[in-house]
Amino acid sequence: MTDRQFSVFTGLALAGALLSLVLLAARFASAISISEPLQLQTSGDEFSSHFAIWRHIQGLPVYTDRFSPPFSFSIYNWLFYDSYGRLTAAVLGVLSLGEPWIPTIGRLISLAAMVVGMVAAHLAFVRAAAAMNQKSQLLCLAFAVLVMAGPLVGFWNVTVRSDLWARTFEAVAVAAFLAEYPRRRWAAVLWAVPFAYFAWAFKQGNVFAAGAIGLFLLVRRDWKSLAMLAILLPALWGATLFFGEPQYVYNVLLRDVPYLGGAGHMFRNLVNFGVKTGPMLFLLAGVLVVVLVDRKRRAALWRRDAFVLGVAGSLCAAVLTLPASSYRGGAENYYFTLSFFMALAAVASLPVMLATNDTARSRVLTAGSAGWATLIVAIGLVLAGTVGVVDVRPQHVANMQKKRCLDGLPRPLFVDSPLLSLPWMTPGNEPWVISYVYEDDRRAGHAFKEGGVGGLIAKGRFNVMALQKSGRGSPAAFDGASLSDYRLVDDAEAARRGCPDFYLFFKKS
Length: 509
Description:
The protein is mostly helical. It has two domains: 3-37 and 98-383, no CATH class; 393-507, no CATH class. Helices cover 62% and strands 4% of the residues. The chain contains 20 helices and six strands. It has helices spanning 3-31, 46-58, 78-95, 102-129, 134-149, 163-180, 185-202, 208-219, 223-243, 246-252, 263-276, 278-293, 295-302, 305-324, 336-353, 359-383, 393-407, 438-443, 452-458, 491-496; strands spanning 413-415, 464-468, 477-478, 481-482, 486-488, 502-507. Helix 1 packs parallel to helix 5, helix 4 packs antiparallel against helix 5 and helix 8 packs antiparallel against helix 9. The radius of gyration is 25 Å and the shape is elongated.
């Protein structure tokens, strides 16, 4: 191996990181505007977060019964809604903005999680790699950019979901732990615990940093530190649930939520994960090949705390996220923290892998360079418009056209779109931001108060039903309820009303 090979590896890493930021900037420009509040979707069920934040601002309960009208469902942990709600309310008040700006403000709060996470990841990687010169620090920065702003995260960095700050707080917990361990072992745990709790308090499934640190301390047989972690963090979790309101506990524990998914969905998510994390996968594959035959390097890696912690975190995250990603609503967001721990292990392995100028070193660098090259190609295809999505602005144009239609319709109104049912999209109407598991609950036989939406239709609750056209023709029923008591507006009248995208049903009486 020559210095030239390491320079190629570093150059490809920096190029991949730069392209990641270019792609993120393009997506940011399409999803966020400071001149108008954009109404669009950047991740699945994002509108439920908007609605819950709106309820927090209004002083209404965030955690409600999904089996009671309006059948909405807030599933994330308390700190997500509380922090976004307070910050959004403050910005709305200071700038005298209206409710339509809630999504934009929330997306900017999420983007801030990326910035903080990138700083935390860079600090953790610099310590893990013992990076002293400029090139090695730039390499650590490239991996930090990839983990926090790369294509795996994509539009999630500008979405209003709990995953972003949960991932960031887990990275902060690990960075704080590495900064103190093993010099001040108890201090390392005491610094990590609150940040690990914050991650859980944003999204209750984010316990990967806690699991990683716990497994690491177990491997190192640091019993006192492990006991401290095992007492403090579960105590915080338990106290939160013990003092929480019953509906909060019911929602965050996902009680009675039907499971629908399968191996096919998990495989699709795994493929997407592999395509978007080539730099870590290729580099770690090269490391694995080396350590299988090189006992000295294997022993040297075992002595590196950051590498062991990265492997421990990867194992914990994989065990929990692989089954979870098989759920029908799961996506790449399940792998955010896993990618961080894989990058930590990859970066921590470099001082050992590159210490000796031999064939093994050359193979690791070749594998790492190939990984970054695959990422560059993948991002290039997205930027070229061959695959993926860069621009979501057309959603806003279409949604505002639909809003103009809905604004002219009598209330009470039901529209079969949670996004269009948000309070500022159909003002003067009950916000029917239906739970994302509503159909699953129906199939599972769960009972809804007043018979669900179908029961309300049968009781004549709505003066107008606005059902989006799907290409299957006008429906004769909705949610099991007949629409025979409604008059279907013909296409000509719907067009005159500015509603070509809807089947409009007016109550006959």
